[in-house]
Amino acid sequence: MASTMQFQTRLFIDGEFVDCADGGRIEVLNPHNNSRLAEVAEARSADIDKAVAAAWKAFPAWRAMAAADRGRLLLKFADAIEAHTDELARIESLDTGHPIRDTRGLDVPRTAATFRYFGGMADKLHGSVVPVEQGFLNYVAREPVGVVGQIVPWNFPVMFTSWKMGPALAAGNCVVLKPAELTPLSSLKIAELMREVGFPRGVVNIVPGFGPVAGQYLAEHPGITKIAFTGSTATGRKIAQASAGNLKRVQLELGGKGANIVFDDADLPAAIGGSAFAIFHNQGQACIAGSRLLLHERIADRFLDGFLKLASSIKLGDPLDPATEMGPLTSMMHRDRVLNYCRVAREEGGEVLIGGAAPSDPALAGGCYVMPTVVRARPRDRVCQEEVFGPFVTVTTFKDEEEVLAIANDTVYGLGGGLWTRDLQRAHRIANRLITGMVWINCYKRVNPGSPFGGVRGSGYGRDMGFEAMLDYTTPKSVWVNVEAQIAPFYRR
Ligand code: NAD
Question: 322: buried, middle or exposed (CB in 10 Å: 19+, 13-18, 0-12)?
Fold first, then answer.
């Protein structure tokens, strides 16, 4: 099936697919077997300059378009994504290793839903009138910020196009988006669909390229007025520094180390199933993964009994097989990084309860696979502090609420966290005291286009999705009007 697929492999600039200026190429691999899927043009500074110029050329008309018309285009685009679900899902599974049942059932539908949500919001966000002193009218208009740069990672590439571009476009901005060098294929397909549904030339530009080259250049670019980034905390710091040159606005969605707390009154079967989803969905390559399991000591053994059985039964395999529940990690380099954490865990005295290695199945030997891994560890161990970003979860026990809150909040991150309990008061008490941008009670990793997504501390600032995201793509302009001519200015005329 893979060999028959056609991919877009050129940069998308000013409404056209074009070759890059100096002929660089990015090799795109299938993580299931490391065979070559495609070679994609590599954007460098000259290409980014062209993309930024095209976006500014498109901006006046896009900004002036009635918000309802921008919305209508986004709604039409959401329909086009749905109509191409199978193709987009296959591209995403081939490129990322994400199982087809997830790309078809979650990633692509969520991508369409997010564009649709912001399409609907385009003409709902409006300014306000401020009750100022008599004789004056003061109104606040919300204006687009201009041309925004967007840099996204490889773990949910198609979905992130909608999280980033949806609010930006709805608010009247033009976009230059750089997908991750490992996974550029679905965003180029998105560009193709955008052209088909009739987005004006230059409103969206997609420029695959390497982070330290194209990404860094985009973050520094004086023609970019806002940079929105999803990726690691280390790169987020570089983006923030690079943005200082022209003081561009910055939004950062960074790493996480989510605490997933199971109290002794939890519905254990629900907590076991939800906790497995929290860490093993997308092979654990999720910033909001529940990667630290904190178990009340009274139920720890019972919980682990069920959890380890479930984790051991997860079906690893070819992402294109509809029966596959866990695919490969997205690259060999990342697989080695995750396997290295298994070694670190052992060196630190952690007990590897299951996994901790690549699978022995010869059919998976050429791919980037890692078995579901559960490690008993102490809260200050490296494996409990550093983001592994794989199917790797640590288990620690606790005695009471104070202890578990101290452990949960003892991290540089603050993205998401969850808890399982039947005690309503405790649920809200803990939610209130977790230092995170998102909390899930008796569930985990729920997301919705209407709900703001983002973190605090080392997990970044600003939000994807919801009204907050749309507001973040606008600037308030305060306009004063003298509505009573007799009011004199302070100085003589
Ligand atoms: P990464 O930071 O290495 O790369 C992310 C993107 O940044 C890629 O497009 C890359 O090319 C680009 N990049 C790399 N160096 C750059 C530089 N110097 N200047 C500009 N751009 C540069 O991250 P990754 O390893 O690809 O992705 C995994 C990370 O992303 C994890 O830490 C994960 O938690 C995080 N993440 C966060 C969220 C969130 O919403 N908070 C969501 C998904 C992933």
Answer: exposed
